[in-house]
Amino acid sequence: MTASTASTASAASTALTEDPPRARGRRGRAGRAALTTLTWVVAVLFVFPLVWMVLTSFKQEADAYTDPPRLFFTPTLDQFARVLDRGFLPYLGNSAFVTVLSTLFVLLLGVPAAYALSLAPVRGTSNALGFFLSTKMLPIVAAIIPLYVIAQNVQLLDNVWALVVLYTAMNLPLAIWMMRSFFLEVPKEVIEAGQMDGARLPTLLLRVVLPVVAPGIAATALICVIFSWTEFFYAVNLTSARAGSVPVFLVGFITSEGLYWAQLSAAALLASLPVVIVGWIAQNYLVRGLSMGAVK
Amino acid sequence: MNTTARAGRTAALLLSPTFLVLALVVGYPLLAALRESLHRSGDELDESGFIVSGDRFVGLDNYADAVGAARFWTAFANTTVFTLVTVAIEVVLGTAMAVVMHRAMRGRGLVRASILVPWAIPTAVSGLLWRWIFQADGVANTLLGTDLLWTSDGWPAKIAVIVADSWKTAPFVGLLVLAGLQLIPNDVYEAARLDGASAWQQFRRVTLPLVKPALLVAVLFRLLDALRMFDLPFVLVGPQKGAVETLSMLAWNEANQVRYGPAAAYSVILFLYVVVIAFVFVKLLGADLLGERRARRRSEVSA
């Protein structure tokens, strides 16, 4: 690594280290134990519906309904097989395509925009931020009919690209606001040192700024992935058999022949699995915080 | 100054593609909704008994009708209550989650992944999941020893929506705050610990101020989404239930009955409501939210 990165690192730590607060007593241990206990209680309550869903997905439909609910049963993979039989995979493919591309576009458009808005002081910054925000204010219910007409006119009905464009627009405002708040944490000295080294804008962004805010970018990307993956309203109105996404599949499933809880649980489990995997991967970047990213 | 002008040019260049995309995809529907809200469609009889078909310009009639209807005010109150309560719960839960996810402890990977799952399930499905939990002979009544009809109407339905929405969306706040936490260097905490700060003091004096910008962004965007809440109450309880009908659901219901004009009017009113809330929020917390305070601090350091 070059010398500039080393100076960057020290600048980063000095600029962000504030005066530590004066402290009086220390009764940390008991409090910490109580906190840990509370944490686990809340976590269990939180996870309970999920555990229930997972259990149900391995049941036969008959076992899913018993009263009182049955904890012990012979697990089966029948429900998963049924979900796959109903043509789950094409929908999964559509969702993956739309999610990956829209997230990529959000980052491509959003990183420069957020960086531009973090270059203080630039006049009109708050106006631009306000504009981005305002695009999240119209209820989707109102937007759907005009969007349907547009999609029809440009022949993008039941086409994955319509969702790619819409999800990009849907996620951009939040991504810009978020990434800007992370860019603001980058000490000015880091950027100035980079500029002094003669780095041009793309290099500066990629080599100097992004490594410092990597956790922020990872979180942003993860949020975009989840929003795109679970979006329902656009998908159900603008796509059907050809370009339908996973939520469309799930809902089609529910209405066609009543509620089959075990099958629905299996489908929901399969539908959320990719996000868990992506979350797991993103996690590695999430922990690589400023301390590590800048020193390495 | 020269550098400021250059920074301004750079900024404009970097921003223009985004402006273009958003103006196209979001600007047009807004204009269309505004136009639609001033019209009424369908066949109606005019004063002399002739059938008038197609769109008619009716001025602000749709708005007047909307504001005069009791159903509108119920939806308005529901929207407001849901927003305030769910966002408050989500902030507390989400921040707690972030702190937990951030702590080095055994099984952190598992905790992190499982915390994100509720949010990763499409709302249509989690709505059903909760309807199942809340059904008459469901898990909620069994555990609480109650005999309530959670998903029909009245305050149990409100509570059901609030519980399900908090469960679903707190991870979003958690993830944003977690990202903010990751940017705090460890030595800040070490310094605080050396000074003998307790865990709570560390949280109050070190963590909270430093994650505030990320948290405020999370709250702002949650407010916008919560005010437009639609699919969760729709799936969990259903349409046309006074206890849980939000403004978005009301607009949808009108549109579904081919009354596009009134639907658009409800949408525009909701839009304006969101604008006002966001404006007040940004005005009150603007310095923290827009990072002006930090920008100032940084220039002092470099000066």
Automatic annotation (TrEMBL), chain A:
Record-annotated ABC transmembrane type-1 domain positions: 92-282
Membrane topology (UniProt): Multi-pass membrane protein
Keyword Lipid biosynthesis in record: no
A Pfam match: BPD_transp_1
Gene3D superfamilies associated with the record: MetI-like
Chief localisation class: membrane
Domain of life of the native organism: Bacteria
Record localization: Cell membrane
Swiss-Prot/TrEMBL GO biological process terms: transmembrane transport
Cellular-component GO terms for this entry: plasma membrane
Chain segments annotated as transmembrane: 33-55, 96-117, 129-149, 161-183, 204-229, 260-282
PROSITE patterns named in the record: ABC_TM1 (PS50928)
Bias-annotated ranges (Low complexity): 1-15
Chain positions covered by the region annotation Disordered: 1-28
Keywords: Cell membrane, Membrane, Transmembrane, Transmembrane helix, Transport
Similarity-based family: Belongs to the binding-protein-dependent transport system permease family.
Protein name, as recorded: Sorbitol/mannitol transport system permease protein
TrEMBL record, chain B:
Keywords: Membrane, Sugar transport, Transmembrane, Transmembrane helix, Transport
Domain of life: Bacteria
Membrane topology label: Multi-pass membrane protein
Entry-linked SUPFAM superfamilies: MetI-like
Chief location category: membrane
InterPro entries in UniProt: MetI-like, MetI-like_sf, Sugar_ABC_transporter
Transmembrane annotation, as ranges: 12-31, 81-101, 113-133, 169-185, 206-224, 263-290
CC per GO annotation: plasma membrane
Cell location: Cell membrane; Membrane
GO biological process: transmembrane transport
Domain ABC transmembrane type-1: 76-281
Entry similarity comment: Belongs to the binding-protein-dependent transport system permease family.
Name of the protein described by the UniProt record: Multiple sugar transport system permease protein
